[in-house]
Design brief:
alpha/beta; Rossmann fold
Length: 410
Amino acid sequence: MKIAWQFAFIILNLMLEALFLLLYPFLYLFLWRKSYNACLGYGPRSIPGPYILVHAASVGEINAVKSLLMRVLKQYPELSIVLTCNTQSGLTTAQKLSPRIFARIAPLDIWHLRYLQLAINPPRMVLIVETEIWPNLLAVAAQYKIPVLFLNARISAKSFGRYNFFKSFLRLFESSIRMVCAQTVEDEKRFQQIFNIPVSNCGNLKFAALLPEYEGSKLRKIWGYDEADFVLVWGSSRPGEEELLLSMVNNLLIPRLRLIVAPRHMQRLDEVLALLRAEDYTLFSEAKPPQKILVINEIGHLNEAYSICDLAIVGGSFFDFGGHNPLEPAFYKKAIIIGEHHASCRQSVESLLAKEGIIVSSKDQLKDNITSLYENNDLRIRLGENAKRCLTENAKALDLHLDQIKKILE
């Protein structure tokens, strides 16, 4: 079976290389139009001195690993970090982290591009955030004896069946992997069934997220809100959720209600604004006091919105998008509501629920949950304090991950 998979991998790579060469002009033009043609090349040779290669798919993964990367840079001043990602929003976020972090769009997982990425100027190690399993990345790392470590790794119950089916293929590349740092005991067991390599439950790095501190009352005034306003943030909204919010806005008996809507993807902005045509709304980029609804139309301001709000609703969870990170509003001690579809952040939600730091709501219950939290200030404060306490108690994940990195570097 192993020989068959090896043969299939060689054939597949030859086909991909041939297609790449044949279609390169068209591929370049297509990706250039999307400002994504950087994935066709790579330039690690410009990095000064020894470095670590880190791959984090997008903004959520970068935010999760940010505090760990800062600790690594502090502990190893001779090292730089090359941080690759798959999205433009991730690239923008990565470019702001540190002068010693060099942000790149990740190359396509084609053998010769991975060779250019890893072999010409090899990194000390490769850190892969969550579950980005790229066969050629692992194959080239194994060929040139570059150790690989998976950080904050997770496999959902839904994805496990697919990974388990292909485990004979995946095991072709495991020789480069020194350790998988799993988020939970369940993730640890799933990885152990797929790979014959060390796996350790190191906890969820999102609990140790390094977020900026804000002076909430001062920032609230800068944004144009009064202390008497009840500010509700819908963070990382996905299709259908803006309509859900609008359907209940006029039925919420909250006299000074102010809404902040932060779409998860900026390319949906026209779609969101079309829904708001009949409403009084302001764009964040406009320099005037916000109307009843403020739409954040620039990347990088959601945490500011969480820091000034009275209630945070975490999007991507009222329809089946898997949910987004509830630990960001928890960092700012805010009362949080999340929907029932939160498989992507299940552990975070369960940890917050265990500490009574979050409310899981349905589309039908949402209006009543918002009203209840508006009417009960003490409950809002208690939810926020419990959420923050949950973060503090789970922050050991940072040290556990750092210990695994040290074992390889030292």
